[in-house]
Predict the 3D structure of the following.
Amino acid sequence: MKPHYNKILLTGLVLISGYGIFSGCTHKDVVLPAAASTTPIITHGHHVHLPGLTAGDTTQWKFDKVHSAVNWSTPFLEVGADLTGKFNQFGVADLSTAQMQNYTVTGQPVADTSWAFYENEPAKTHFAGYVQINQINTGEPARDGGCLVTTLATTKIVAGTQNLTVQNVARIKTTSVAFDPAGNDYIVTLNFTWQGGLGAPLTESITGKLTYIPEALVPAGTYSDFGLQLSFQINKADFGIVSTETADKIDIVVSANFNNK
């Protein structure tokens, strides 16, 4: 009788244990963690950067052209991999009519002081700039000095001359800068002005994105640097440019560095 009783007891314990394991696997009583928030974490410091040209004054920030770039890209034949390139000559200046001429200088022909950046007050941020169209550089000399110059309706480079005439510059100038609600960047509205293949310059309002790379000491620790990266898109056909090699939409990325040396 006792062996039979023990067998019944053992069977009951197995059933109870199995139920416990099964009910544990269902997680009926487990509180699930809250879903991850999709709200972006936005933090803005209080850096203020203003331009100046006085060497050694650390309150004045100077445009570091040597370590800056203006790059472009567009799909080859509108469907292929990107064609890419850059401009060798550019500046951060709001060119006046009187300044739009040829310069026989090797350095920057116009002071790069048409800008100000307020990290936490974007309404005070502003900048203007230009590129010299005939200084386009794809890495293929036959294209840069030949078909591209013709396609972009400008003239070839004259040795020792920087050409800031109206036919050879594309210009930008901000009309508003605001916080980007989706992150730490800024939404920029700017006027893009270029003559291209038209009889006179055309100005279009374009929206882009601005990223701030915060001020920091360089590795040597003798001065500080900060960066701004602007990205936007233009439609070349709007400016009378006809080309079967490229798409109408051209992406522009401006990477500008500044230091307080």
